[in-house]
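REQUEST FORM: STRUCTURE PREDICTION
Request ID: SP-0412
Submitted by: Lab K.M.
Chain count: 1
Length (residues): 65
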Amino acid sequence: MGLVALWCYGVLTIDEHLDPLIHHFEHERVGPYCPPERRHVDADCGTLPFPYPRIEPPAFAMEAR
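STATUS: Completed
RESULT:
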């Protein structure tokens, strides 16, 4: 028996004023230069064709104030 664990990051969110700027930077400025495989990160790796059942991890968040 084995386990495959994947870790990726999502788009940063801060507040309603900065989030549109971050979204524009992420998708319009930098996005065109990302490799096509970046779509797997955007889909939380759910588009990777693993032949194994998915185990849902517990939800968590990293926050700083």
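NOTES: The chain has a mean pLDDT of 85.
Reviewed by: T.R.
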